[in-house]
Write a sequence for this structure.
């Protein structure tokens, strides 16, 4: 490298640092060496640099979005056994994981099923796949989120707390039916549902079908209005299958030669 090239290289480093293109600062020299060796036209060299920067930005964005999504670890579509829930096909789940068809319109997804049927797993797995596809997701236990919103309301900041959740194209409300049932809490829930209606998506998991929701919202008009908004643009999966936990406990027990009933009692939920 002659003196002039060295000065140019130093300037490039300074300029890239000034432009905050730190990823590019690490790699541009090796791409430049390759480009010189292969005799690339300038446009090809520039395209290679731009591609590199874009890939790096996507990687950083994914890491950030994954961290903020607060997904339960280890739950992916790859580890989800679709044979256990014949009412949902792998193809359907993968279509939902692309996101475009529903998140773009603020449509919802509702998963019903008894405890252990895989609702949280599927919700987390879809969340992860959506983050991988560039969407912003927040996975929350319904009761935790409602508590936060209730505190915000006490501080007269409910509206802005709900508005802050707008940055998530998907908000997962896990265990919807478990939220406490006092009037104040249920109305923040209602306000959240209304605020996101037809704009931003919700994925709700619940043990109880709609018929039981009267116990979540104390006021029947509010129950109906909430259900109406949730289902208007939605896909509903009824995962009426045996508990996966229980099934695998029974299978383990059988393999160990123990009676299934005993294993069911000791290992279930
Ligand atoms: P739910 O939320 O419906 O109560 P979970 O999603 O928490 O049920 O499932 C209970 C456990 O069983 C979790 O460890 C989950 O990973 C596992 N599980 C449930 N369904 C499946 C499935 N179809 N394939 C793989 N694991 C499953
Ligand atoms: Mg669950």
């Amino acid at each position: 490298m002659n003196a002039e090239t060295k000065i140019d290289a130093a300037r490039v480093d300074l300029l890239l640092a000034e432009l905050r293109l730190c990823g590019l600062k690490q790699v541009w020299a090796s791409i430049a060496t390759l480009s010189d060796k292969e005799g690339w036209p300038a446009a090809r060299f520039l395209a290679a640099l731009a591609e590199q920067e874009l890939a790096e930005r996507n990687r950083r964005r994914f890491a950030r979005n994954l961290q903020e999504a607060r997904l339960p670890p280890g739950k992916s579509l790859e580890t989800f056994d679709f044979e256990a829930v014949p009412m949902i096909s792998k193809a359907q789940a993968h279509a939902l994981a692309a996101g475009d068809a529903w998140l773009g319109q603020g449509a919802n997804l509702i998963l019903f099923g008894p405890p252990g049927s895989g609702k949280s797993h599927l919700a987390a797995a879809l969340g992860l796949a959506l983050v991988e596809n560039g969407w912003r997701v927040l996975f929350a236990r319904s009761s935790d989120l409602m508590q936060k919103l209730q505190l915000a309301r006490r501080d007269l900041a409910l509206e802005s707390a709900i508005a802050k959740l707008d940055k998530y194209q998907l908000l997962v409300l896990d265990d919807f039916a478990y939220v406490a049932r006092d009037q104040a809490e249920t109305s923040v829930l209602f306000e959240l549902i209304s605020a996101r209606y037809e704009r931003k998506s919700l994925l709700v998991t619940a043990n109880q079908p709609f018929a039981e929701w009267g116990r979540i919202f104390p006021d029947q008009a509010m129950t109906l209005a909430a259900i109406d908004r949730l289902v208007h643009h939605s896909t509903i999966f009824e995962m009426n299958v045996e508990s996966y936990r229980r099934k695998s406990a029974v299978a383990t027990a059988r393999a160990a030669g123990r009676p299934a009933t005993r294993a069911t009692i000791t290992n279930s939920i």
Remarks:
- Residues 260-269 have pLDDT under 50 and may be disordered.
- The pocket of magnesium ion (ligand 2) is lined by residues 119-120, 174-175, 205 (CB under 6 Å).
